[in-house]
Amino acid sequence: xxxxxxxxxxxxxxxxxxxxxxxxxxxxxxxxxxxxxxxxxxxxxxxxxxxxxxxxxxxxxxxxxxxxxxxxxxxxxxxxxxxxxxxxxxxxxxxxxxxxxxxxxxxxxxxxxxxxxxxxxxxxxxxxxxxxxxxxxxxxxxxxxxxxxxxxxxxxxxxxx
Length: 161
Description:
By secondary structure, the protein is α+β, with helices and mostly antiparallel strands. It is 34% helix and 27% strand. The chain has one domain: Alpha-Beta Complex (tt1808, chain A).
């Protein structure tokens, strides 16, 4: 899996533009079908045979697991589940501390902790949350002695924050 960042960013902008008219009508299934499937393949470059959905393990179910061995777990949320993000740079994408996202919004914290737990329980390094107009990606497990609650990369339509 290898995608040039500028190409991935352009494809993501196009995907968000195409998906946005669906708005709050999108439940989680629609978000997954119309947005997340394309995000993983077209923007992030995961081949279809390395994407697993609805993976059950130890009584938990993940929405998406990517890679062989698995390297990314993505939790999909319905479009109306907005991740509240503290004021930040106008740059899109932007970076922020993961612990500041957790302390800023209980709803966002619950989503982060959900996917963080999946990754830590399954030994997966990368975690992501997506709702169709926001994408949060972060390191969920680390082997360098540093806390995983460091930096998160956020892509968000301005009206979604």
